[in-house]
Specification:
Distance between the termini: 29 Å
Radius of gyration: 19 Å
Strand order of the largest sheet: 1-8-3-6
CATH superfamily of the largest domain: Jelly Rolls
CATH topology of the largest domain: Jelly Rolls
CATH class of the largest domain: Mainly Beta
Helix content: 40-55%
Shape: globular
Strand content: 15-25%
Number of helices: 8
Order of helices and strands: HEEEEEEHEEHHHEEHHEEH
CATH architecture of the largest domain: Sandwich
């Protein structure tokens, strides 16, 4: 948010902010004063969900350190179908709506950063829609495993451990398929030697095989 701001000014602005700690499983939604501020994640992970009309949830994104949540509801209070749930212990810095609007009015670079934030959100959402429309289930699951491993994976003796904080049900909602389908696909990947199931985690053993599977979907989707 303050990346393009003069370091001295950014330091003064940052001193006005106080971090807040959240335990795992904490839900922030329209029942709280969620729409009055946005949060910059210092440590930990959260999932951003959207409630459908039938009450089911779709996982839109999993966010980690330096990423921001709450911006949509900050500027659109009627977006009450969105919620954020902490997956781990989370430390985040809240920025009140009034404070952010003041910064945006006083400093053009802050406005630019906020607009860039929304542009990234739109791109991420568009990419997800294209993925759902033009990729089959196996390719989507392979792609999401790789995405999650790049952002949150932990190296272990030449392999990468992922999903340790995300349930299979949540991962299925993230991919957009039924949990049973995810289970069967992961078992198939394991039988091919691409991954190893280890409790609640997935250990990626052959990342190149997953990349090859995922890349096939991109070759079939239409150009912009």
């Amino acid at each position: 948010m303050l990346a393009k701001t003069d370091p001295v000014a950014a330091s003064v602005m940052a001193k006005r902010l106080q971090p807040t700690a959240f335990p795992p499983g904490c839900v922030l939604d329209d029942q709280d004063d969620f729409g009055m501020r946005l949060y910059v994640i210092v440590s930990g992970k959260v999932k951003v969900c959207c409630r459908r009309h039938d009450g089911q949830q779709v996982v839109l994104a999993v966010l980690g350190p330096s990423e921001i949540f709450g911006a949509i509801t900050l500027f659109d209070p009627e977006a009450n179908e969105l919620s954020v749930t902490t997956l781990t212990d989370v430390v985040a810095v809240p920025i009140e709506r009034r404070q952010l609007l003041r910064w945006m009015a006083e400093r053009q670079e802050v406005t630019d950063q906020v607009l860039r934030l929304f542009a990234r959100w739109v791109k991420r959402t568009t990419d997800s829609l294209v993925d759902v429309a033009f990729s089959d289930t196996e390719r989507r699951i392979a792609g999401r495993l790789l995405l999650y491993s790049q952002r949150f994976g932990r190296q272990e003796q030449g392999a990468v451990r992922v999903l340790q904080d995300l349930t299979i049900t949540d991962f299925a909602r993230f991919v957009g398929v039924a949990p049973k389908t995810v289970d069967l696909t992961l078992l198939d990947f394991e039988s091919r030697g691409w991954i190893r199931m280890d409790g609640d985690s997935v250990v990626i053993v052959d990342g190149q095989a997953l990349r090859s599977m995922s890349a096939m979907s991109g070759a079939e989707s239409p150009g912009a």
